[in-house]
Each structure stands twice: as structure tokens, then as C-alpha cells.
Specification:
Blueprint (H helix, E strand, L loop, with lengths): L2 H26 L7 E7 L2 E6 L2 E9 L2 H16 L3 E2 L10 E2 L2 E2 L7 E5 L3 E7 L11 E2 L5 E5 L2 E8 L5 H17 L4 E9 L12 E7 L3
Antiparallel strand pairs: 1-2, 2-11, 3-8, 3-10, 4-9, 5-6, 7-8, 7-12, 11-13, 12-13
Amino acid sequence: MSRRKRYSLVLAFIGLVLVAIAAAGPIMSNVEQPKYTTLLAEGPIEIRKYAPQVAAEVAVTGERSAAIQNGFRIIAAYIFGANKPHTKIAMTAPVEQQSQKIAMTAPVVQQGDGTRWTVRFIMPAEWTTETLPEPSDARVKLVPVQERRMLAIRFSGTANDALIATKIGELREFALKNKLDLRGDPVLAFYNPPWTLPFLRRNEVMFELGTL
């Protein structure tokens, strides 16, 4: 085989690998997501009505990116089997002896004041606080989330602090213009694995809304 042909094959192989990596993020993010109804849409900004949910959450401290990684690790351990099942529960995810696996969902949600953060996974819709297995790690809390309205903005790219701050500003400006009551700290939502190419990522910033 000539050197030129070998070089072409290597380039073709590298190209296939890059395509596979690019596709892996969106494919692996094709998991259950919280159900909501869009009440209003204006460009990338939406007002959404979310159905009641159950979240597994953990409180962590530190810089934002490190905090979400730490929180993700703790809750991922819970959904992948670090729990204490008390009853037999029918489910589609695998069941392991003395442990239960809970299906992965998206997004991973982070909320906090800059040093203290709450990181949460929304549990698949078939689970309730009564049927979910008890976490082995006492830091993981199972929390019911009531029906709520959220002001959300969706964007791609690498969600660094500067970009997040810009999107928070856009939501605050939209809320002021439309006389919307924002409650609490902004909620950050990330839908993709960290290796997803930036332009294929789905990120969101949201605020809970008060009454109209």
C-alpha cells in the first residue's frame, strides 16, 4: 500500500472518529426530560408550565463548575444503584441484587447563590417519593416539586460564567418589560455530556415565576 493511500485511510479514520464524537453527545442526551407546556414563546425565551415532579438533589459548596461536577457524581451514584430498596418495583431499567438502577434523565439542574449550590436530577415520571428507593448517601434528598411556571431561555455553546450572566440579564430584561414576577435565584439546566461539541449543546437558564 502506498504512503499516500495509508495517509488517506488514516485521515478517513480520524474523520469517522470525530463524527462519532460529535454525534455521541446529542444521542446520549436522548433521554426522558421533564414534561411542560409552552405558554408563550418569543425567540429563545419561553414561559413554561411544568407538571409536578420529584427531584433527587444534593447541596454542595464551592465554585460553580466544580460544584456541579461534585453534585453530579453524588446523585449519579444514587441513580446507578447506591440506594436501599424496600420493596420490589417494576421498572424498565435493570434491577441488580440488593440495589436498583433508575433511568437517567436530562437536564442536570443547578441553583445557588455563587458559593452554595443545589444540584438536582428530575426523576423519571413513573417514580414518586413513596416508590423511589431510599438513598444510601444521606446527602441525597428526594424532594417533591409542585407544578410551577418558569421563564426560560435556551442557548448553545459552552456555558461559562460570562455567557450564563448574559442570559440571566436577558431574562431579567424580558421580565421587566413584560411585568413578570421572578422568584428566587436563577436555575441553570444542562442537557448534554461534557464532551458534546459546543454548538450541539442545549443549555438553559430559568427563573420561577410568581402569579400573573
